[in-house]
Design a protein that fits this description.
6 helices; 0% strand; 136 residues; mainly alpha
Length: 136
Amino acid sequence: MTWKSYDLDQEAQRLVLKHRDQKGVIGQSHKMRITVAYGLERFWGEQLRLLDKEKAKGEYWRDTWKSFVKIMQLAGIKLPQEDVSNNDTQKIQQFAAKLWELPIEDQRICLAVLTQFCDSLVWWTQRYKKSGFADE
């Protein structure tokens, strides 16, 4: 596996700047980085939990997933990207199954890239967090 940047840092910066004006949202970057260890399907699924409870945070997760899908397309790996409602159990199951059915080598590449992408999100979060946003 050879390394290509795929503009991960630039895309991470764009996402952080897009969401930084909503209190508590960009601090999710740290949680994203931790969630990578649990797999693609759990990373993707976190948006579903948050969209119903804390919409702005859920939108940050969803935007991050969509950006990641575009990055992986550049790498030649096609990931599912359709929006799924937390109320549609069948679509959730289908989406997770698509992720689990990826060849193991593609899963490993995705997780390596997602790890680096989240590291960039964390770095930009630390640079751009606003004072008074203590929960960032």
